Amino acid sequence: MPCKTVLASHVAKPFLEQLRATLKENSSIRPKLVGFLANNDPAAAKYAEWTQKSCEETGVDFELRTVSRNVLETGIVEANQDPAVHGILVYYPVFGDRQDQYLQNVVSPQKDVEGLCHTYCYNMYHNIRYLDDEQSRKCIIPCTPLAIVKILEHIEVYNKIITYGNRLHGRTITIINRSEVVGRPLAALLANDGAKVYSVDINNVLEFHRGEGIRLTKHDVFETDKRMEDVVPLSDVVITGVPSSGYKLPTHLLKDGVVAINFSSNKNFEDTVKERASIYVPSVGKVTVIMLQRNLIRLYDYLQQKN
Amino acid sequence: MPCKTVLASHVAKPFLEQLRATLKENSSIRPKLVGFLANNDPAAAKYAEWTQKSCEETGVDFELRTVSRNVLETGIVEANQDPAVHGILVYYPVFGDRQDQYLQNVVSPQKDVEGLCHTYCYNMYHNIRYLDDEQSRKCIIPCTPLAIVKILEHIEVYNKIITYGNRLHGRTITIINRSEVVGRPLAALLANDGAKVYSVDINNVLEFHRGEGIRLTKHDVFETDKRMEDVVPLSDVVITGVPSSGYKLPTHLLKDGVVAINFSSNKNFEDTVKERASIYVPSVGKVTVIMLQRNLIRLYDYLQQKN
């Protein structure tokens, strides 16, 4: 089969090694990451386990705090105020509703390794890439969307010949998921980098792009009457994140030579996907946990600059 | 029937008159409120109409901007930056999901008359009542919860004999709704004022209170195994906000002499409620629109203080 399967662990490796080297060479850098587990979700527990394992490999000091959800907010506020903590991570879902989004904003932007607080989300949607006018401090990007960007860079969907910021110009990408945590930010990120993105959810298909000739400085969003079946065959890249074991995207819809990426913990592509895809990325989680740590180091640096 | 029905228009009246007098006496005060309507929800259109009408009565300059939801964010950002706009209001739901909460945080805290941005929500949950250490600028409270507090003050559920901040001590209140926009903030507000609150949603019953003898400075939240049927009969006040025309709270569950308040646009109490309740408040919307304007005047003042 000509399809190349790219594993997240393989994409994560150079980032992991670079982080390990940085921490080894600079013994004064001892960033501490605190993770809060306040649910009984096996997917969250697995993600926590991966974080633990990856931090052991890089040398990041990781502490998992298991708490009941009704005292989680107090725990976050204490960690915000604790100078020994440099990064805070919450394993969602906690309440599984809008209260989770409230909690995302309780995490201090100075310690928000997930990049889910409003400041970082707003900057990302508006294609504002730096926190300061001097462009010395890059914004924090939400971890899973960032992991997918890094995967797309690794597999050269990003074209390095093109100017930075426009490197997806000419690419058509479908994303099946429009959650506030992954699908919508990812659509915005890729559109801001020049792609034409079809964002699919259960209700409709939206287009995210920067206009013809990517003339806009940030993406706009456009309503369409298109259906998933219309846009998948047009797409160079199809990214799925449907949280259901029953969902399978029919292989026959895919363009021959498509890049297929799945970030759901369920397998959203059929086994036959490899018969049509040029590149298949079955999962992204291991890149996500290294992006968490990359964001942590960034925030750690910003804190040192301030002091 | 001994039950006293209290109409929102009656509670709103003194606030409306006070606002009108303030604006009449100080012709230099010309606060401008901009409302964004980006849905086809008849309830939202009605709320917009009420805002319009109430602003005409008080003298607040109200402008309704009808926009498509995909350009709403741009509209909000422009209004944030426009010095001629003092208050911004969005008629939700727009997307009907977490993206609405993102939009609530796009509204500048300096113009957020609804009190739905994270800064105000966080302060409310944490019982932080002022924006500054000098206690010169009170926090903005979300409009509908604030309207219900004002109604509870009007009907003397708040006991003025007790110290400010503790005036609900001894009251047991059930709230049937735990949305992030009304039910949960309301439970926190009333618990922070000393009440023992049962917060009911479709999944469970939570207790919000400040501990025995209201010894805590802010409420905590406690899980219970209780059901709605257990807590309604214990409650001095029952507040309903179930957005369904089919839902009716059975009158037989209510304590004789209960205070019954409905903030849903559907009638959540049976017609027989008046046979048991001492006070019945069938709706709160007209108090909400005046609280919007009260928040507007407050924000207008803060802006002038800064300049």
From TrEMBL, chains A, B:
<keyword id="KW-0539">Nucleus</keyword>
<dbReference type="GO" id="GO:0004487">
    <property type="term" value="F:methylenetetrahydrofolate dehydrogenase (NAD+) activity"/>
</dbReference>
<dbReference type="GO" id="GO:0005634">
    <property type="term" value="C:nucleus"/>
</dbReference>
<comment type="similarity">
    <text>Belongs to the tetrahydrofolate dehydrogenase/cyclohydrolase family.</text>
</comment>
<dbReference type="InterPro" id="IPR036291">
    <property type="entry name" value="NAD(P)-bd_dom_sf"/>
</dbReference>
<comment type="function">
    <text>Catalyzes oxidation of cytoplasmic one-carbon units for purine biosynthesis.</text>
</comment>
<dbReference type="GO" id="GO:0009113">
    <property type="term" value="P:purine nucleobase biosynthetic process"/>
</dbReference>
<keyword id="KW-0554">One-carbon metabolism</keyword>
<feature type="domain" description="Tetrahydrofolate dehydrogenase/cyclohydrolase catalytic">
    <location>
        <begin position="9"/>
        <end position="114"/>
    </location>
</feature>
<comment type="subunit">
    <text>Homodimer.</text>
</comment>
<dbReference type="Pfam" id="PF02882">
    <property type="entry name" value="THF_DHG_CYH_C"/>
</dbReference>
<dbReference type="InterPro" id="IPR046346">
    <property type="entry name" value="Aminoacid_DH-like_N_sf"/>
</dbReference>
<dbReference type="InterPro" id="IPR000672">
    <property type="entry name" value="THF_DH/CycHdrlase"/>
</dbReference>
<dbReference type="GO" id="GO:0006730">
    <property type="term" value="P:one-carbon metabolic process"/>
</dbReference>
<feature type="domain" description="Tetrahydrofolate dehydrogenase/cyclohydrolase NAD(P)-binding">
    <location>
        <begin position="142"/>
        <end position="202"/>
    </location>
</feature>
<dbReference type="InterPro" id="IPR020630">
    <property type="entry name" value="THF_DH/CycHdrlase_cat_dom"/>
</dbReference>
<dbReference type="GO" id="GO:0005829">
    <property type="term" value="C:cytosol"/>
</dbReference>
<protein>
    <recommendedName>
        <fullName>Methylenetetrahydrofolate dehydrogenase [NAD(+)]</fullName>
        <ecNumber>1.5.1.15</ecNumber>
    </recommendedName>
</protein>
<dbReference type="Pfam" id="PF00763">
    <property type="entry name" value="THF_DHG_CYH"/>
</dbReference>
<dbReference type="InterPro" id="IPR035812">
    <property type="entry name" value="m-THF_DH_NAD-bd"/>
</dbReference>
<keyword id="KW-0560">Oxidoreductase</keyword>
<dbReference type="GO" id="GO:0004488">
    <property type="term" value="F:methylenetetrahydrofolate dehydrogenase (NADP+) activity"/>
</dbReference>
<dbReference type="InterPro" id="IPR020631">
    <property type="entry name" value="THF_DH/CycHdrlase_NAD-bd_dom"/>
</dbReference>
<keyword id="KW-0963">Cytoplasm</keyword>
<keyword id="KW-0520">NAD</keyword>
